[in-house]
Amino acid sequence: MSGTKTAKILIADDEASLRFLIHETLADPALLVLEAQDGTEALQIARSQHPQMVLLDVAMPGLSGVEVCQQLKADPATRDIQIVMLTAYSQSKDREQALAAGADYFITKPFSPTQLFDLIDKIL
Fold it and tell me: CA 121, CA 1: separation in Å to the nearest integer?
């Protein structure tokens, strides 16, 4: 990552193996990586830790990624957080739903770690 300031990124996905993969991909001293295993936890962490970015799975138990995105973007305290929706659903209606909820970016699973790292580097 470019720059010297530590950036916070929240990974919100119910698949532990995917959180681990993303966390390892983002291993960088300039990043503080937080993790949530469901939508409710993601919302709580985002509100308390205010990360610069949330990597948000669409389909999670509890609140869906779309619901979390809507709530974060509706709140003046969290609306500036960059939200990257991660989903196995690749239909255009899924992309439209995520973007309508306020998502800033949309990546379809499976994705390459390089693709994700490059997007994060561009955003931060």
Answer: 6
- Cβ atoms of 14 and 57 within 8 Å: the answer is yes
How buried is 83 (Cβ within 10 angstroms: 0-12 exposed, 13-18 middle, 19+ buried)?
A: buried
Beta-ladder partners of 35? 11
Q: Using only C-alpha atoms, what is the Rg of the chain?
A: 13
Lowest mean pLDDT among 7-21, 74-88, 89-103: 89-103
Domains of the chain: 7-123 (3.40.50.2300)
pTM confidence score: 0.90
